[in-house]
Protein 1
Amino acid sequence: MTVPHVPDVHPAWLPPEAFRAAGARRVLVLGDDSAPAETVRAEVADACERHGGAVAAPGEACDLVLALSSAAGLPAEARALLGPEIGAEGFVLARRDGVTVVLADDPAGLLYGWFEVARLGEAAFGEARPARAHRPALRRRMLDHWDNIDVHPVMGQVERGYSGGSIFWLDGALRADLTRVRAYGRLLAATGVNAVAINNVNVHTAEAHLLTDRLGEVAAVAAELRPYGIRVHLSVNFASPITLGGLDSADPLDEAVREWWTRTTGRVYETIPDFGGYVVKADSEGQPGPFAYGRSHADGANMLADALAPHGGVVFWRAFVYNHRQDWRDRSTDRARAAHDHFAPLDGRFRDNAILQVKYGPMDFQTREPVSPVIAAMPATRLAVELQVTQEYTGQQRHVCYLGPMWSEVLGFRFWGPGERAVADVAAGGGLVAVSNVGDDPYWTGHPLAQANLYAFGRLAWSPELDPAAILDEWIGLTFPGASGLVRDTLHEMMDGSWETYERYTAPLGVGFMVRPGHHYGPDVDGYEYTPWGTYHFADRDGVGVDRTRATGTGYTGQYPAPWSEVYESLAECPDELLLFFHHVPYEHVLQSGVTVVQHIYDTHFAGAEEAAGIRLAWEKLAGSVDPALYARVQERLDEQVRCAEEWRDQVNTYFLRKSGVPDARGRQIY
Ligand code: BDP
């Protein structure tokens, strides 16, 4: 096992300097012969070789001990930490008498402890630290790749990918050199991610075969990720028994079909004993599913769960199910209601190893949505919350948009009011999942600053209570080692409020979309207005917004428990930022902020575009202080962000000026 360093690829948050503090010390590792423990030994050796430290033998003096609690010959400093169970993937970190100790019950915990030491840098070797247990709050912390083997004529190779091609496949075949996959696993492990699904949820023909005759490719990827404690998952096509197995049905209650899944899954585990499980998008946007046989989603998910159970696998069954062929003239339908309508009645009917994967909002990864009520509605079901790290609707990695604050809000949202359980608590036994934003781009993420989103995802999945601004600083510190205060402060200033900036110049007050159909980049206010997709704003000459109240609208507010059902129902109490998601209001409706809706639209769009220009200006201060190639890449993206923000500003402002006839109170130029 060697630590993967890939030439010509940006090291992201793990540059060699990140290990300077630990690598300059004498380090003792007491692990076992598992893959992650082997990785820790390799990491320590690599860091020590680079930075002048040494690998200590048992009994020798050392500055850092990384040990399994079950290891023989624990030094006294580590023995002192033995006590209550630390638990799966967790570790205890302490510093006493000049020795820093990481103690874990399992090798994965050891690995996470090693990366925590790297994150702390010199601080890990300074003052004494009382013992502190670190444990992941969410059990599964997974990235979904929407990668295809082949290049899709419209979507490219990675669906909604903004960072080049797949890191797994090239020219229709698995890449010959998978070092980069291992380097990716390393980056993810350093944030706490422990699962990856390697292919698109829309499973096309070539990718469907990964389950059977192309399984060797999955095994090869699993071999690269295993050392970093990451389990591989596959997206599978519900119709596989027909398309791959030659059966005439995929009915989940048909014995032959169940038999096929059992056999096929058995073969998967013979090849990949630690395979994680399946991801399924069924009866959604044209994907096959159980509805064709008059069966429920619980029937479908349970069939796969039963096939996986003997091997310890899980099925992530996506709740993103809605009618994408709806009649836009019919105001009684509401896409926001769909997931709850389909799934809430099935609560309690899913197997224990079936995890319902729910998008954070009821629509589709918009810049601002209320938290999906499905998350509150299924107490007897294991749930995972799904986020979109890939910035499909948040600037497509051309715009700076740091999403940590949004995710932190989602995870901390309390459906049942203050003091009650938060979303992160509800999902603790399921997990947090996100669509990955990496590709074969030399910076991994196209926009180098979009790396921060990947980093923040993992950190929040491990510790949802972390402050996203602090995570940002952590990321800056690791990624720009030795950077001056000016560089660090400037990056912070550019990124910390960038989600809200993006929100200001795009669709207003939670109404969503207004993007160009198909690729979803840039403004098109009416782009989806008269289409079958169910993503409307209902702007007319009198007002704008979607009436989702129980009193006069679609009744969606009724899917929330109190107090939110009442808060969202009430025009006076509904938070401004979601007003148009829940209510259709006249343009001169006065927001809680004291300005009218239409004036708010003008103000925020002028402000947002100005802030985008301010972000570019801030970056220009850093010319000469950061790597020139990285500087140029960010600069080119910022030029596009500023251009695009102005385009949004002008289209949205013009549209609402013409619809409403209400001039800007501040007399600014609107076209
Ligand atoms: C939408 C994307 C589409 C995905 C879909 C999904 O536009 O490409 O297939 O989500 O989550 O946001 O399945």
Protein 2
Amino acid sequence: MDQLTNKVAIITGASSGIGKAIAKELANKGANVVLAARRSEKLQQLATTIQEKYAVKAIVIESDVTNRSDVENLVQQTKKDLGRVDIYVNNAGVMLLSFLKNDHIDEWEQMVDVNIKGVLYGIHAVLPTMIEQEAGHIVNVSSVAGHEVFPSSTVYSATKYAVKALSMGMEKELSRSGVRVTNVSPGAVETELTEHITDGDVIDMFKDRNMTPLESDDIASAVAYALTQPETVNVNEVIVRPMHK
Ligand code: NDP
């Protein structure tokens, strides 16, 4: 039996990488999915693929998570179209690694806006609905960089530690509300994430990196595991690292 049949799941950052893989995996398990990001053409292609392959609804809502009213609209439009919100995956994020000495202040601000404020807007937009439903599951995508700080990850890590802190606080506050919270912390995954890095010192450092990253599907499986546990089980933290060969 499909374990998420008739559930409604919103996934932010569904236009590529991990978010796209999560959307497909949740649809595979029977959920109706709401695909959110700024690149609506990519979302539309994914919606078509999902609807051709799985007997679920897939709708596209173009939204920028740094815009509070976009995120409020994402939840309101979902409720209008699909009636409820069972799952909200706070996945959209940017990783603009840089060394502090190179002073990429605009990128620091962008990471705070997307990775922290975007998650806060998601919580603000969806939590009242889940509390009223007395049921729901919020998945926050943090990172191993939200558990350790690496050279050049200082500001990115600060944002991902913040995500982890939000998850921990939510879990404590919501444990009797019917709303479950999962913090997912991936290690390196092969996606578009590193393509946006502009710090030349980091780009040079990455050239010497010798490792085999995870696939986005590996993270989607971990998210699906947390979402398909019995309602009495709250999987609060999942860390997934690649094996070194
Ligand atoms: P991608 O770059 O492939 O995906 C990032 C997603 O975030 C895209 O769909 C992008 O969509 C969306 N996004 C970025 N900015 C905004 C915005 N302002 N508003 C709405 N959506 C936005 O990277 P990943 O799939 O790797 O990243 C997904 C998450 O996983 C991130 O939170 C990242 O920090 C985390 N992570 C990734 C790791 C990795 O190694 N890849 C490791 C640990 C954590 P669009 O541009 O269309 O808006």
